[in-house]
Predict the 3D structure of the following.
Amino acid sequence: MRDNPDRLRVRFAPSPTGPLHIGGARSALFNYLLAKGAGGDFIMRMEDTDRDRSSPESEENIKQSLLWLGITWNEGIDIGGPHAPYRQTERLATYHEAAQKLLDAGHAYYCYCSELELEAMRLKQIDRGETPHYDGRCRRLSAGERAAKEAEGIKPVLRFAVPKDEELLIEDLVRGQVVFQSQEIGGDFVIIKSDGIPTYNYAVVVDDHLMEISHVVRGEEHLSNTPRQLLLYDALGWIRPAFAHISLILGEDRSKMSKRHGSVSVVNYQAEGYLPQALVNFLALLGWSPAGEEEIFTMQELEQEFSLERVAKNPAVFDLNKLRWLNSQYLRALPKEQIADGIAAFLTDEWTEERRLLLAETLTNHIETFSDVCNFLPLVEGSEPLTCDEDAAAVLAQEHVMSLISSFAAKIETLSELTPATIKETIKQTGKELGLKGAALFMPIRVAITGSCHGPDIDKLAALLGKENLLVRLKHVRK
Ligand code: GLU
């Protein structure tokens, strides 16, 4: 029995077999929000039983990605808690203990079938038009037969004896009622492998029970595992937790989200200059819909607003433009010092702090992520003339342009310091002298410097470019 049956306890239980993906991050977030909203517990457990594919690097990546997103756990790996250890390979004795109970009660049995035998069984079943399943042949071994196999040195696996004709009903908090039939789940399944390592379906049940998990919230890909898990809860005499299976995340072409659709790992978004607050906001909206029109939510607001009732059954579509838009909203709200720090990762060391700050100020409303800064660097670095589009070329073809640019360049020559203010003033003076204002004055200067009719403030861009480069660009126009 759980110590406090009313307390909501959820967990994120990743397998450290690769970096944290968007889908995993969303599962972690939904669990975290549920726990926070209900004043419950969020547990972080490492399901590292796949020894070939698990690695300390993946574990580290998952932890760091969660922390970067602002998702912390109040029980779990690294920090411990009342149900430690929280790494499955450190809990083997616990799984063996529960397995012994299943064995003693006749719910489990040793199976000595070789890979070859299992494969032959599978092929025969396919031949007969049956769905492959373990046919239960080792269930009926006598004590003598078992002893003979042991004497041969065969290391058995432990299988769960799936009862016949049992209806397995999941009252899924997202999907509603989902029914499976026990005879359709692939036959008696392995719970402990021959090397003593538990399988996922078994270890997850033991852990979720002992860690007093009240709600299992995870990806839809695990729905088909749930009937096996229900059988284990029942056989062990344990109360089943509530289940909620969240829909898949699809790419924009409606196929399962994969690398093909762009970055799938959280670290990639971090490296590409996204803000964690924006990614959290975006992930929350992947499957969950808020009650009102508002789309921008801080973590604290999400903790209050989030509920499983508003999580959709249909798949969520990953819309990168939406993520970029959300990111731009958070980016614009940052102080310029933080934007300057964020873009620093995409700039060479030659960029002094002062110039970085000016660049941040110049680009705040023109970039959606920090890495977008790279698109603007050609505007403010180097003396090469920038290729003009048709509109820009038409601006430069106007009759008054040559004298305007010459006079502007001459004034720039005399400036000892190029700042947005001195440049603004120079443009103003040039206009006064030549009797030009508005677009007739500003547009040719803009195009001469940037090659385009649109873009960030020209006085700031010119200041960033520096006197030497600016003069070379102006000279190109007069050629
Ligand atoms: N280790 C499983 C995974 O990473 C966890 C599934 C679950 O939450 O039950 O997919």
Notes: Residues 135 and 340 are 65 Å apart (CA to CA). The mean pLDDT is 96.
